[in-house]
Structure prediction request, 905 residues.
Amino acid sequence: MSSESRAAKAAKIRQTLAAEGEAVAANTKGFNEGRYESVGGLDDYEGLKERARAIKEDAIERLPELIEQVRASVEANGGTVYLADDAADANRYIAEVVADRDADTLVKSKSMTTEEIEVNDHLEARGTDVWETDLGEFVLQVADEAPSHIVAPAIHKSREGIAELFNAHFEPDEPLETAEELTQFAREYLGERIEEAEVGMTGANFVAADTGTLALVTSEGNARKTVQATDTHVAVAGVEKLVPNLRDLHPFVELIGRSGTGQDITSYISLFSPPGESPTVEFDGEAPLSEQDADREFHLVLLDNGRMAMREDDQLRETLYCIRCSACANSCANFQQVGGHAFGGETYSGGIATGWEAGVHGEDSASEFNDLCTGCSRCVNQCPVKIDIPWINTVVRDRLNREGAPSEFEFLVDGLSPDAEPSGLDIQKRFFGNFGTLAKLGSATAPLSNWLASADASRRLLERFVGIDSRRELPSFERETLVEWFADRGPRVGPEAADREAVLYPDVYTNHIQTERGKAAVRTLEALGVRVRVPEAPESGRAPLSQGMVATADELASETYAALAEHVDAGRDVVVIEPSDLAMFHREYERLLPEAAHERLADASYEVMEYVYGLLENGAPGDALAGGDGERVAYHSHCQQRTLGLAGHTEAVLEALDYDVLTSDVECCGMAGSFGYKSEYYDLSRAVGEDLGEQFREPDARDRTVVASGTSCLEQLDSLLSRPSRHPVQLVDPGR
Amino acid sequence: MSAKATDEFEESLEGLGVTWSRTTAAAFEATLADAVTGPAVGVGLPFEGVSLAGTDVTSDPTPAELDAAATGVTAAEFAIADYGSVVLRPDAPGTEPVALYPERHVAVLAESDVVPDMETAFGRLADAMTDEAGDAIIATGPSATADMGSLVKGAHGPKDVHVVVLEDR
Prediction:
């Protein structure tokens, strides 16, 4: 990307932040909190997620068979199934149904799949009036805007904005103002459209193959009316919406509302096995309901549009398990700031949108927003079907990387990049992806490297050609690495005196930049009777993986495993300070290493404070560490550490050592490794960070010592607060 | 079903802002009269000894009567205790339009038809719908929207829901 296109991207993000950020943030954070609360009320949340996942895996595996089954069951009910190859095929079929019915008006309930095929435009061009009856979609239809969220499409609009829009567009006798007035007006206006309509179009959240039943998850009642009031029903559903049996809907019904907007259940779960026998009500007729004609017609349009190819794609297949609940969007710190207009492609938005856009519209449709996924992984545990959404983003990023043409400035990073990537990879991605090499060079030439890097001329060059924002302070490399320091110093716990043996993994940040936290960790573990070693080891692969450089990450994973395997085999624990590297060992190495290697390393590796917690629990002397004596601490855990369920250990250790701990509750600090350094994302990164900054400037927090687990978090906090921040192990360090 | 399930059901209704009354087949007409706001329309009820005939509720309404109605009275096939849901079955006599169009929906439920949870509910629905496909609406509270800037009860569907529980059915 050129510096001009970075600047244009930054400007677009600033514009979205200013115009829509406030409304988007209020809504998505509300949904996010609602989800935590609502799933907390389930007896067996994990069990339901596992069942939902298993049903989806089975359904996608057996998809061709289920398509034939649903064709038979829908036909037995009196309906028709049409399997559409692509958007054009689906639109052609639907237009024929509408023409055969001689329909002037078609009413719709909310459906992202019909957005995907842009059926409204297709029908309107052929003279049919199309009305969205979901109130959020109706607002957007009037405003001629695209959805900013897959479940709540108009979250970027405020009540005031909607009132202004309606008053200007409809010119009501009395200007509309309150949400009640706006709702009542829309109900009446759309009620007339529903009464006029001959055709009703819905999507489907699920389709049960055994009974030919559609499940529609709604709260307004518009889907019910759309079906009830029209005699011709067209349902458009992606083929992936099929589940084998009606009974399989159970876990999804319990999960979908909770995962999305944080409602235990929506007002209506409609199970329709059309055409059905409910009388359509002709309001100009005289006959009572029981004598009304129920001559209904039903067309199920099952859409392929790339899905069967996704099914064959080992990396994209999981996307088909998605139930479009929006949990990944609502739990995403970046999405919470900008919403789907920035964090979305042609149709879909949020974390999983990369998979959908790549699958149905092509990878290019994901390229604009794919980098907004920082891999923080907060969405992973929120997904009701357990999709590894960051991995899908990484894979698509890798595929996009391979499409680029070589840059004329490639020579600037050539010396830094012994990577396994194709030439043509964006220079910024190559720079950050090779951070391990850069750090080695930085330490070897420090302090010269630091002076050079911070010189105005260098910063201008870095900003112009690499896209590193000059408003960010660059990390300062230590001349003596942690490994060198330890080699000189040697272990202080003898083999006989040792209760345990551990290797402290010298992650690239601890080894070259934050060496003090590494030394504190060594002293802390030794004080608890651990014989520590700090061997040479490669960068884990996190840096290249975050840039979508999967091949490079794969090589580094193998090298890192090779460097640590002998220690693991010798019974030594692997202690990791940087949570993003520990997350590599636990999560991503599953995809980069053979199964046995991944399991062996993951089982042996621990986050440093988790390890301290374990030592204390097993009787190591807590008084050997620096106690807090009531010291007030503000703690920000690391996003990936929280996904691994390891934030509580730090809190527990600090509390056991008499620190008074307050923990932040934001999803991510916004720095996310390289993300906050990139000039096109600087403003967004700051906006995300500001939520954390605000929490730590509250009256109860502003005098507290600030600690954070991740390097990025520390850098972001240092830029947000006037107080310094450090790693929690530096608090308990007996040498403090 | 057990008294415990009914207690839980009523507790759930309270959380949803749905009102309810307990009655018997013998006292049904008087209870229903209190529960409806006129004009009211309804569809025939399947419970023995319980009928709309002796009430002010118009059975099998014309479209004009449906349009003018303030309350719609239908049977609920069963209810789900831990969610406070009633399960409606759209049918030829018009349960769906009567439950959907008027501002107030009164669902009449036999106490023996309260099931404890969603899993049991789907077992029951699957048993009922596998041999002969049909429709079902799991309705939980009134219709609602948050699309106009804040939560509003009463969107396209009913604004108020009331459940009449028949203790002896």
